[in-house]
Specification:
The structure is a homodimer of 497-residue chains. Chain A has 497 residues and is α/β, with parallel strands linked by helices. The first copy, chain A, is built from 20 helices and 10 strands. Chain A is globular and about 70 Å long.
């Protein structure tokens, strides 16, 4: 979930200065239109890691826009007046009216996270808090409020580096607060709890936006653009009272660096190494599947990837390790008539393996947010709500002991072209390449964006995505097998504790 | 919540026979149209009290409609296959396809209720179960499924009477199952848990319908009509893909008996008794408000009622008992400009009393489901979702120690006319009667229906409605004061345990 925010994003000063000017004007204009129209209030929730630029961004938003139409509320210690009333009262009294923007610095999510980190909020109590938060947000959205939820992120390394740099700098060490030091100790717990809460509270009507916080230029432009696009979309829809206020793209690409670009596509495995490692990992898988601890788990592997990325070959190498009675491969193509008569997750639920068993999905429920999104096979509101539905689905699997591994096999455009040509010239493989593959290829940028959103929104601790560099098929196959084995071992280990 | 279902509803055989014929044909027609259109699946959840006609109704629905297009699923013990998979798998595999009806006899709610009654589901765990159920239902609705949730009800008295009658009847005692006897012992717990779960899971997209189960004719017609109207509304909306599949009226009135009719409007309090009891209850209130246990509570009293029912007079008698620093009266009229710029609950949240204090709302948030509904000041989807939002709101108050009493002051049409005339002829009171009052009077049946739905949907253990027979003002005033006092005392008592 935080993967995209942990790769380096940097915007240089010249670019920033140029873009800032345009953004400011547009934001100001949107802000006045918002006031003019007076149909929507805006709430901006600020959460995330200390030092990731939360305060600076709020300051900046007030500089960029008309601060008279913005109210910033902080919710630290409850006042006497607040303590004497129901917990939500403090939020209600600070709600911005229609036409205005309210920035909630420290909010219901901060309280959940503090509670989880310090252990005074039990897991089951968290359910109640989440139910309450979603109820409140859904009601506010139904009443016309636009909710932007920002998580400012730093990787652990970035966070530690910041502390190191600042602490010895007499001019800047005052910037470090006790909170910074406290958080450096609880970082892992905090991020873990954050991921859990974000996964369960990112809904189509009020999605989370995760912002890489290390570079000030990058994060400022990112927040500004998300806000701008969200406001503009709402203003457009408002006249017709469209059902969904949030039609903003899920992730604004402030720079051109996505998770997929951060892969080293040059990795390569020599033939001899491949043979040795493949046999080794296959043996390991065979053993793990026969382990008696497997009786308490099931295994699900999802294969997605570019056309001609080698999914089929990778799946065959996995299957080769196993007794056919242990696994089942489910190839996912266009739904059958029976499947079309059901909710889209139905055709995957029916193939969920029993404990002790293994199902390989050759393409999967992610079709909803990939091909169906890109090709327009479903409406935007349908794929927008799918991220939350899929996370719920996978949480249910995980809670029942299913070990879930998800692979995106990535190749670059050049490699794909090469493979397409090879297939066309090979009489045995010719059937594998169709007109549709060539058409899909033209939509490369759209798929790239969809894959980015998918990974950002559905890669979770319970069910992480593994991006596989697949220009070299041998490397890819070994990585796939090793990832499955590592996941099984980790699950066995965890169950022991 | 169960109040309406606990008054006697009886449909005689002749009426039933006549109506049944019409209903059957219409249901069958709707069923075929559903199959033809093939855009919606229907799920009917069957829950409630043993002996309230659950099985009989399911049997009847299969007789009335084409049983080939209905699949009945029971979910008792999990099978081996089910135990080996995530808990929801058993429901997914039984989902009806589009165009069909699935009846789920024993379902996710039965499991929650059993768990609560037998104590193996903790209160916090219930939150997780409810979150899961609502997530599933919302997703299904988004995918085009119509969900009807029926709770078949018997009052405790009705339930015990049934057991008594059947047990000594050699011809019918076989009808009693071990479940019946078990439930007779856990009735209170079961109904309490039921109310809690129903309150929290009745949503606009999948509301609960509570059906009085004692009379077979009544309950059969009621279920049949709700189903019919729901199906017809969905079929109508389906072409235009309207956002809300459930546009069926909340409560089908199978007979003309509503809760309001069950009031004995002839009750009367003699002047001497009134004076004595009034002083007594006022003294009691003054004392309770000064009780040190009041420091942990706040008090909110909501006054709604027919025009000229005497709300003002009753409120004055309450206030007369108190020090003005202890209470505050909030008269609710049309919202101010500031209030219109906020979610509709905002203007009530701002007046929520601090602990130790008392707020009287002269009209309240129930305007949303009364005047706004009847006059069309808000869209149907807005007041339909309000029941759930109001229940959430009141639950938050209650959890924070607020004691909530809600009064509906009821007079009959004749009495209202009389009072209107008196007001017109009285120079001092003349300002109290306007054109609008006369117009409202013409909408008496619409208000009557809205009041019925309001009480059915929002009278809960946490925040019960008290219907006050107000033809006699003196009786009404004493009943109001006594109800407040009893509620405070009960809260103090409860807090002690």
């Amino acid at each position: 979930m935080f993967e995209s925010a942990e790769i380096d994003h940097v915007i240089d000063k010249a670019t920033f200065d140029a873009e800032e000017q345009v953004l400011r004007e547009a934001l100001l204009e949107a802000q006045y239109a918002l006031r003019e129209q007076s149909r929507h209030a805006v709430i901006i929730l600020i959460n995330g890691i200390e030092g990731a630029g939360k305060g600076e961004t709020v300051k900046l938003l007030n500089e960029w826009m008309d601060p008279r139409l913005i109210q910033v509320s902080t919710f630290d210690q409850q006042t006497d007046e607040e303590l004497a009333r129901p917990a939500a009262w403090r939020y209600w009294r600070q709600l911005p009216p229609k036409g205005r923007i309210g920035i909630f610095f420290g909010n219901w999510y901060s309280q959940m996270l503090q509670g989880r980190v310090h252990g005074d909020l039990k897991k089951d109590q968290l359910n109640g808090a989440i139910e309450g938060a979603l109820g409140l947000e859904q009601m506010l959205c139904n009443e016309g409020t636009l909710i932007f939820k920002f998580w400012f992120h730093l990787s652990k390394k970035q966070m530690l580096k910041r502390l190191e740099t600042l602490k010895d700098d007499p001019l800047h060490s005052w910037r470090l607060s006790p909170l910074d030091w406290q958080q450096s100790k609880t970082y892992d717990k905090f991020v873990r709890a954050g991921e859990d809460v974000l996964r369960r509270t990112s809904r189509d009507y009020a999605p989370w936006y995760i912002v890489a916080g290390a570079d000030a230029n990058y994060r400022s432009l990112t927040v500004g653009r998300i806000l701008l696009e969200g406001l503009q979309a709402a203003l457009r829809n408002s006249a017709e009272r469209a059902p969904l206020p949030h039609t903003t793209p899920l992730m604004t690409r402030t720079d051109e660096r996505s998770l997929l670009d951060s892969l080293n596509m040059g990795v390569h495995l020599a033939k001899a190494d491949y043979r040795e490692q493949l046999v080794q990992e296959q043996a390991r898988l065979a053993q793990l599947m026969r382990d008696k601890r497997m009786r308490r788990h099931a295994l699900v592997a999802v294969f997605e990837g570019n056309d001609a990325a080698g999914k089929g070959g990778a799946i065959r190498r996995v299957a080769a390790a196993l007794d056919p009675r242990q696994y089942r491969i489910v190839p996912v193509a266009a739904p059958t008539e029976e499947e079309r008569a059901q909710p889209y997750l139905w055709r995957f639920w029916r193939h969920i393996p029993a404990r002790g068993k293994f199902t390989v999905f050759d393409r999967s429920w992610y079709g909803r947010v990939l091909v169906e999104r890109v090709e327009g096979f479903c409406a935007p509101e349908d794929w927008l709500r799918a991220y939350g539905e899929i996370n719920d689905f996978e949480e249910q699997l995980s809670n029942a002991g299913v070990v879930l591994v998800k692979f995106w096999l990535a190749i670059d455009e050049k490699t794909q072209l090469q493979r397409f040509r090879e297939r066309e010239n090979n009489p045995v493989k010719r059937f594998k390449i169709t007109e549709e593959d060539w058409r899909n290829r033209e939509k490369w940028p759209l798929y790239r964006e969809a894959v980015g959103d998918m990974v950002d929104r559905t890669s979770t601790r319970l069910a992480p995505w593994t991006l596989v560099e697949a220009n070299d098929k041998q490397f890819a196959r070994v990585k796939v097998l090793r990832t499955i084995n590592d996941a099984l071992e980790a699950a066995f280990e965890k169950a022991r504790h």
